Amino acid sequence: MTQALLDIRGLKVQFHTSQGVVRAVDGVDIMIRRREIIGLVGESGCGKSTIAHAITRLIPSPPGRIVAGEVIYQGTDLVRLPEADMRSRIRGRAIAMVFQDPMTYLNPVMKVRTQLTETLQVHQNLNGPAAARKAQELLERVQIPSPERVANSYPHELSGGMRQRVLIGMAISCNPTLLIADEPTTALDVTVQAQILRLLRELVSDLDRSLLLITHDLGIVAELCDRVYVIYCGKVVEHGDVYEIFDAPFHPYTMALLRSALSIEEMKDDLVTIEGQVPNLMAPPPGCAFHPRCPYCMDICRREAPGPVPVGDGHHAWCFREMGASG
Amino acid sequence: MTAPVRQSKHRAVRALREFWRRYRKSRSGLVGLALVCGLVLLALLAGAITSFTPLETKTGVPFERPGTVHYFGTDDLGRDVFSGVIFGARVSLAVGFLAAITATNIGILIGALAGYFGGWLDDLLMRIAEMFMVVPVFVLALLLVALFGPSIGNVVIVLSVLSWPGTARLVRAEFLSLKHRDFVEAARSLSAGHLDIIFSEILPNALAPVIITASLQVASAILIEAGLSFLGFGDPNTVSWGLMLYWAQKFIRHAPWMAIFPGLAISLATLGFNLIGDALNDALNPRLKER
């Protein structure tokens, strides 16, 4: 087995608010290997983005705090790394982020060229002309048809797809080994989505990178990812190979997610939804967090939290179902 | 490789033209600009416009009425009032600009630190700013100038030290909202440091209201300097409009031109900067852009 590039173990993130403690991420293990594309799937508010921010230690603090766990990047625990090293070695250089909304993540008063060259000058000590040349290369790399014109534009003069390409260009400017894309296509048209996804896949395979893709869109996961982690209520409920997850989902939550996605794809008249609401993370239900919404709920689910159970080749589910009524 | 340069120049020109198109809509703004430009020109060309110098006595008979030789008349010592007004423009405008620029820079620095870092630093800096704001600026300026001596340099320093809090509060408010914007997070994810974020990411987004306030501060600095000089707390060796009013006090009935012309200059200068500030507010405020 190839060595892990990033190994998250027992990560817990809490937000201390005036109403109480929110357990946004509650004991998550995730492993990413070199050249892998990992999908992180779940509903809004389940802690996906918090995991991404925890990896780069960009959780707004206060109120947020990593209370337990390790994030091992090539042998270094990022949770305990001093902030200065985080800045000089990790952010942007080793791990870079691509964000959701390309409009708001670009500085509105700076030209694209300036935004790109600034990063390059800070990180790679390039002088003005060299940085400008590199910026041009980056824009070509992210397949922008007229890089010169785009470099001289302000963000509001560009289309959503172009802006997302610029953001991706910024993210790869210092050759990070791991890209984290947080809902990179949510704000884009479907046609543009496909282009951006293709671009991300090419960047990963051409440049020997890994990608952590955070999304709620199972279609994107199916198209792009090698392995999938399904997150519910700040916990991993199932993970495995993308084919395993789609062909033989085990956890009732994964099944429900797939069913609701399929109902849209097949344009059935009735929209299949998951009954109930995402639980309040300040007071999650006891036992398995999914039990109030679970059609297979048993007594034990209300009392105890399930551990990982192997349900296939490299495929685990956090569910008691297998022990009682198997299948 | 000339193409991108030409293009970017072209863009800068376009941005300026766009700004000018919006600014031009305000007629009063144009009047203000004309007033200020006129005064600046007079100040710059003072030596070429008049052959007299303002401190030179006995250029003519004392208390000569305005006429063809002494356009604005002469004062009690036979000094030429016209040359005083235009050489005084140098002093008054310089004090106004210098004080406004210094105050704006102090205000930006303190406001940015308070707004960006927040917490106890914010509390501390804002309480200090409030301390300055509750004291009447003019009285404090009077006291400080009396204490440190009435040189032009001291007047500028005192005015800068007293007028930064307004800008600081403005900048702080902008930073409070801008620091949570997504592009700041994006910069941070690429490991931009605090200084980078403050000065190259956030500050350019906060400049419009600062520029507007700065133009108003020029006007108020000119007024305060005139007030100080009028009360005899100005630099006695540098002719400014306020100092001329001070000289005119005793002769206001006998030779009103000694007071009217410098007074008019002060009014026109403050009016000009205020009109510019108003027009800038309309031209730079994005919410009003479309009207």
Taken as a percent bin, the fraction of beta residues of chain B is under 5%
Number of distinct beta strands of chain A: 12
Major sheet size, sense and barrel closure of chain B: none
Radius of gyration of chain A, CA atoms, in whole angstroms = 21 Å
Subunit organisation of the chains: heterodimer
Shape of chain A: globular
Helix/strand order of chain B, N-terminal first: HHHHHHHHHHH
Shape of chain B, please? elongated
Helix/strand class of chain A: alpha/beta
| Helix-strand makeup class of chain B | mainly alpha
**C-alpha Rg of chain B (nearest Å):** 23 Å
| N- to C-terminal distance of chain B | 39 Å
| Name given to the CATH homologous superfamily of chain B | MetI-like
Helix content of chain B: over 70%
Q: Any idea how many domains of chain B?
A: 1
Helix content of chain A: 25-40%
| Count of runs of 4 or more consecutive helical residues of chain A | 11
Largest sheet report of chain A: 8 strands, mixed
Span between termini of chain A: 29 Å
- Average of the residue pLDDT scores of chain B: 86
Q: Poorly predicted ranges of chain A (pLDDT <50, ≥5 residues)?
A: none
Short note summarizing the structure:
The complex is a heterodimer of chains A (327) and B (291). Chain A has 327 residues and is an alpha/beta fold. Chain A has helices spanning 48-55, 83-90, 112-124, 128-141, 147-151, 160-172, 190-207, 218-224, 242-247, 252-265, 299-303; strands at 4-17, 20-33, 37-41, 64-73, 76-77, 95-98, 178-182, 210-215, 227-232, 235-241, 308-312, 315-318.
Structure in words:
The complex is a heterodimer of chains A (327) and B (291). Chain A is of the alpha/beta class. Chain A contains eleven helices and twelve strands. Chain A is 34% helix and 25% strand. The longest helix of chain A is centred in the middle third of the chain and has 18 residues, at 190-207. The mean pLDDT of chain A is 83. Chain B is mostly helical and 291 residues long. Chain B has a single domain (39-275), classed as MetI-like fold (Orthogonal Bundle). Chain B has helices at 2-24, 27-44, 46-49, 81-117, 119-134, 137-148, 152-178, 182-189, 194-230, 241-248, 257-284. Chain B is elongated. The chains are: A alpha/beta (327), B mainly alpha (291). The A-B interface holds A 56, 58, 86-88, 90-93, 96-97, 99, 101, 104-111, 118-119, 122-123, 148-149, 151-152, 167, 170-171, 173-174 and B 3-4, 7-8, 11, 181-183, 185-193, 196, 200-201, 204-205.
